[in-house]
């Protein structure tokens, strides 16, 4: 039986008229790597900070290791590792000194510091003032602080936002290594690739609600149709003249009816029929692409907006 | 291009709340306050201690230069504006205390031939008073003799050093605790630290201890310099001085907490720092005595935390005060600090 680590029941958080978290019910289990995926303003930070005890829900209940924040705040703080969307450190304190300071705040000594420095690959920067670190190094230091107390639950709020692709990949690697220790990870991001790479469970969030919950393949197959054909014709397309086997597929056409896309179960099964029909009608194919569906496509199909778009 | 550059910068300036106050309001406010202190308006009270028999003053009053008033004599001086000097007869020891506490900068006495004026020529206020007096006595064929004050306690620098020490404590706390907290909150470092099992009190207490150590060292260095260079020595009790340093740190740590209890913006923060320190630097008798302000304001001004601290330091360093004599400032400062901390921590924004 899987052990529940974090349980949310009917959690609501409002900012004035805005519902940042809308009656969330959620159970997260030990060892899970959970990706909270959603566009800016979805409510990810609010949700994570309520779990961290930094914000209070207006109603509903949050239990971590079976305990609420009002029951056991010091214990929970000691068992969690957190990093915010953006933290800056004491400018003129070196990496190692910063780690030592926070280690003492967790009631520990200096014994874990070497290990953590190694984990987050900052051994060479140990003497560098934090103000002189690059963005990626700073995020790794923030992660290092989160790892100091050997947390059972790690909560990272947009750890790679604003980083270049290389630094992002470095961080992913670090997180993959930690995975072996049975840590539970909750990570927020608006990069679907990040959730796809790291997380075995993905929660789609938008406007304070969880729209979908499952593994990558579960989410994709939940749509039934997992592949996609995109095309452009030389003249407007008449959907009514499609043969029977294609007629019921969800064709989406852009205005002008020349350009469009269709989700299919298997490209190799549907494409020949489609090409045959084009030839028969005397159309000319100007562009053709086929690919697997991505989380982004799923998100668009559920909300009508892309993940990285701002509304 | 220059036009757009200027426009952009002006816009930024005018849209920043607070900036308008510092650019326009503050200078006006300052000139108004200093105007009260240094012009005849608002009932400036220039009272000069007169030591010895006042027969000479009586003589002057015959010629219409002076008039008798309650508790002494009054002299009207016509310069660019009318100013009034008061003479009050008193014992020499009392006159010395007046000077030490900055209540007067000049002591007058008459030895039968010369009018003796004890003052510190390095004190700008004393010089101003001297010239005023000289104007008032213009048509007297009288020799004015300046006796420079050289003993500790009466010189301007004696007035200045304890005040600067008090100001050192204030600045150390306001910047070291208040500003640091605001900056930590702005960087979200505060909430990151509070998210650890660290007791919140530990952070505040560590800051307080730091300030205590830093300001004690700072004051020791300043005092050592004053001793070496100006021959200022500690007349009173070292224990009382240390107690006052602790009480001062408590008071200003409390004020710093109160100042930093909500804001996370460093712009607002620097405004708050100025708003806390500037008025006290002027009103608390650091560079010139608050007795330049109207007499009704003295009881208020003397109870400002910085005044209590500075006056207490002066009493210990120059007048030989011990713990018993500074019991009032010690209690008042400690109480202020505890009250401010209590209020601040009730509304403190940790996240
Ligand atoms: N302190 C706050 N006051 C008012 N509105 C807030 C506050 N914090 C967040 N919000 C609003 O709540 C919504 C969710 O915010 P957030 O949880 O930060 O989203 P995300 O982290 O997914 O980008 C946003 O619309 C945001 O503007
Ligand atoms: Mg966020």
TrEMBL record, chain A:
ABC transporter domain location: 6-232
GO molecular function per UniProt: ATP binding; ATP hydrolysis activity
Top-level division of the source organism's lineage: Bacteria
Record's subcellular location: Cell membrane
GO CC annotation terms, alphabetical: plasma membrane
The keyword Nucleotide-binding appears for this protein: yes
Listed SMART domains: AAA
Alphabetized InterPro entries for the sequence: AAA+_ATPase, ABC_transporter-like_ATP-bd, ABC_transporter-like_CS, ABC_transporter_ATP-binding, P-loop_NTPase
Record keywords, A-Z: ATP-binding, Cell membrane, Membrane, Nodulation, Nucleotide-binding, Translocase, Transport
Similarity comment text for this entry: Belongs to the ABC transporter superfamily.
Stored PANTHER family: ABC TRANSPORTER ATP-BINDING PROTEIN (PTHR42711), ABC TRANSPORTER ATP-BINDING PROTEIN NATA (PTHR42711:SF5)
Entry protein name: ABC transporter ATP-binding protein
UniProtKB/TrEMBL annotation, chain B:
GO CC terms: membrane
Listed transmembrane segments: 20-40, 159-182, 208-230, 236-260, 272-290, 326-348
Membrane topology reported for the UniProt record: Multi-pass membrane protein
Molecular-function GO terms, alphabetical: ABC-type transporter activity
Pfam families given in the database record: ABC2_membrane_3 (PF12698)
The ABC transmembrane type-2 domain, residue ranges: 126-351
Subcellular location: Membrane
Superkingdom assignment: Bacteria
Organism of derivation: Candidatus Lambdaproteobacteria bacterium RIFOXYD2_FULL_56_26
Protein name, as recorded: ABC transmembrane type-2 domain-containing protein
